[in-house]
Amino acid sequence: MTDTFIGIIGGSGIYDIEGLDNPEWIGIETPWGSPSDQILTGMLDGVGMAFLPRHGRGHVHTPSSVPYRANIDALKRIGVTDVISVSACGSFREQMAPGDFVIVDQFIDRTFAREKSFFGPGCVAHVSVAHPTCPRLSAACLSAAIDAGITVHDGGTYLAMEGPQFSTLAESKMYREQWGADVIGMTNMPEAKLAREAELCYASVAMVTDYDSWHPDHGEVDVSQIIATLMGNADKGRAMVRRLPALLGADRTPCPHGCDRALDHAILTAPDRRDPLMMARLDAVAGRVLGRPA
Ligand SMILES: CSC[C@H]1O[C@H](OP(=O)(O)O)[C@H](O)[C@@H]1O
Ligand SMILES: Nc1ncnc2[nH]cnc12
């Protein structure tokens, strides 16, 4: 049994969370560089909480420039056990309307200009992301959203695009009609893959802000509309977060789905061929299986 420590990665429009006991912004450096910002830590109902604004306060990072590896490493390094992404997304489904939440359970990764792994030459590893989100953590998010009176959809496929431009009409139609995606955003990949490599449970709560560009009755997406929808629904996000500690509890049992043991059989590089510099960089992410430097 360990202590639950919930990490929230706040997306566009979410740069702070309220209501923490003993709140403190702390600066963390990682072998992968600086995270997007300092991390706000504190307690909520007796459970440790950490909040990291994905784009930084003041929104300085584009979806491509977000330091995804540093963000996940920093959360792991301070002891976070469960990471919840709260993001804005466009919807490909009539019934997933602006203001609704979607508990994402699958991804199509169309990003191409980002570092996608902690591993590499000198320490090669392959983890499974067949089920990229944690069912236990996702179920807690679903319950929290329902308890908060939010219209929430249980499951959905998130298409992660590179951006920063929104999709063309042809792309929007293809993702929706041929590829079966339900929502679209620019940030949950490689974040989810990196969380799996770091043996962190990861859930994605996506708030629908628009119908992208496919919908005949809605104009094309624009950023002011997205931010207006986000601001108009910010209380919902806060209400959901407030309920999470009670649902997850302070004492954490091992993940029944194995998220916290994802590296058990993943590392291929023979111990005597491992690069010591890589080993040092992986101290937080893979220390459980590689051993931590003395
Ligand atoms: C604000 S418009 C597009 C921008 O919003 C979403 O960010 P996040 O996922 O961090 O909430 C989307 O992915 C784009 O990065
Ligand atoms: N339509 C959209 N496409 C990509 N990212 C988004 N974030 C919010 N709405 C979006």
Automatic annotation (TrEMBL):
Name the protein family. Belongs to the PNP/MTAP phosphorylase family. MTAP subfamily.
A GO molecular function assigned to this protein is: S-methyl-5-thioadenosine phosphorylase activity
In the record, which residues are listed under signal peptide?
none
- Keyword Transferase assigned: yes
A single Gene Ontology CC annotation of this entry is: cytosol
Q: Name the reaction it catalyses.
A: S-methyl-5'-thioadenosine + phosphate = 5-(methylsulfanyl)-alpha-D-ribose 1-phosphate + adenine
EC assignment: 2.4.2.28
Q: In which pathway does it act?
A: Amino-acid biosynthesis; L-methionine biosynthesis via salvage pathway; S-methyl-5-thio-alpha-D-ribose 1-phosphate from S-methyl-5'-thioadenosine (phosphorylase route): step 1/1
Q: Which residues bind phosphate?
A: 12, 54-55, 87-88, 187
Its keywords, alphabetically, are: Glycosyltransferase, Purine salvage, Transferase
Q: What does this protein do?
A: Catalyzes the reversible phosphorylation of S-methyl-5'-thioadenosine (MTA) to adenine and 5-methylthioribose-1-phosphate. Involved in the breakdown of MTA, a major by-product of polyamine biosynthesis. Responsible for the first step in the methionine salvage pathway after MTA has been generated from S-adenosylmethionine. Has broad substrate specificity with 6-aminopurine nucleosides as preferred substrates.
Q: Which residues form the Nucleoside phosphorylase domain?
A: 6-234
Q: Where does substrate bind?
A: 186, 210-212
Subunit structure of this chain's protein: Homohexamer. Dimer of a homotrimer.
CDD domains xrefs: MTAP_SsMTAPII_like_MTIP
Record's keyword annotation contains NAD:
no
Which protein, by its recorded name, is this? S-methyl-5'-thioadenosine phosphorylase
Write down the position(s) of the site called Important for substrate specificity: 167, 223
- PANTHER family in the record: S-METHYL-5'-THIOADENOSINE PHOSPHORYLASE (PTHR42679:SF2)
Note the InterPro entries from the entry.
MTAP (IPR010044), Nucleoside_phosphorylase_d (IPR000845), Nucleoside_phosphorylase_sf (IPR035994)
| Gene Ontology biological-process entries | L-methionine salvage from methylthioadenosine; purine ribonucleoside salvage
**By its UniProt entry, which NCBIfam families does this protein fall under?**
MTAP, PRK08931.1
